[in-house]
Amino acid sequence: MKLSRLNIFLLLIILLISFFSISYLDFTKSKLNRLEILNEQFELEYNLENKYLEFKLFQKNIGLDLVFLNNLYSMRDLVDSSNFSIESKNKLANELKQYMLNKPDFYQISYIDELGLEQVKVENRDGVIEIISEDKLQNKFDTIYFQDSLKLTQGDFYLSEINLNIEYLELDTRTLLNETYFIPSIRYGIPLYDKNNVRQGILIINVFANPFLDIIRFEGLDFSQLTLIDNDGYYVANKNYLKEFGAQTKTYDNFFTDNPQISKDIFKNFNASYMTVGDNYFRFKYIYPTLKNFEIYNSSNKIYGEDSEKIYYLILVNKLNSNE
Q1: pTM of the shown model
Q2: What span, in angstroms and rounded, lies between the C-alpha atoms of 302 and 75?
Q3: What's the CATH number where 144 sits?
Q4: Cα–Cα distance between 48 and 63 in angstroms, integer?
Q5: What is the pLDDT of residue 67?
Q6: Domain limits at 40?
Q7: Taking a C-beta distance cutoff of 8 angstroms, is the pair 41, 320 a contact?
Q8: What is the tens place of the pLDDT at every residue in 47-68?
Q9: Dihedral of CA 169/93/114/159: which sign?
Q10: Where residue 226 falls among pLDDT bands split at 50, 70, 90?
């Protein structure tokens, strides 16, 4: 049966309408997908900025703690006398113990003399604040943080790398429910000067890093992966905590091995803040522990000098997979 011209015309109209409807729906869907991705990217950047601000806030109050402890009467008495009598040391230790009762994030407070010998040390051991006995005090002369602290002058502050705590030359651990955990920590310090402006050692606050790292581990967005890495790509904070501090634990888990499509050279562009690699969108922010973005006071950059970012820095990375 032959179709009339009218029927043919109507059929063409129906086909054209169907074609353009499908095309429009595909275009609308594609546009919505793009808008959804853009919205997710915006949330990603907002989330990253919030975590960065929390990161900075986590640090700043420690400076006030150091100043307060430096001015304790028992601290001044011990530093000015420099004879380290048992009575003076016990008095300071008890005051530090009382102070730590209200500081659950503090792991240790130590007074270390110019020879690297711990003179007073108070420790939070599983929630119990203990004064470390004389026979358990250590020589910290060869530690990185003590050697770095020797470069401090009066008014300077020290801020260490975030790493796993070491005691008696071994990684410090805790056991909970038959599972062993390492202890990430950050050390803050100031040089101690007596009334004659003679340096008599350093005051170190060793802080549990987990409260801060948990902000990154557990508070990312559902559609993104938030991590903190160091300049070598080793994880400092990851939702899978077993991947963290691979260089120290000898697992060697690394951001670049998990993302082989990314070159280490990409993160050497310190002015960059985002990149797209395949279907993945990365937003990142550099954190320099000894420079303006992440310091207690400007003088702390004297530890490493002007090129500190070439020695140690952190990168807060948020990864969005557009296929998810």
Answers
A1: 0.74
A2: 25
A3: 3.30.450.20
A4: 24
A5: 85
A6: 34-59+212-321
A7: yes
A8: 556 666 666 666 667 878 888 9
A9: positive
A10: confident
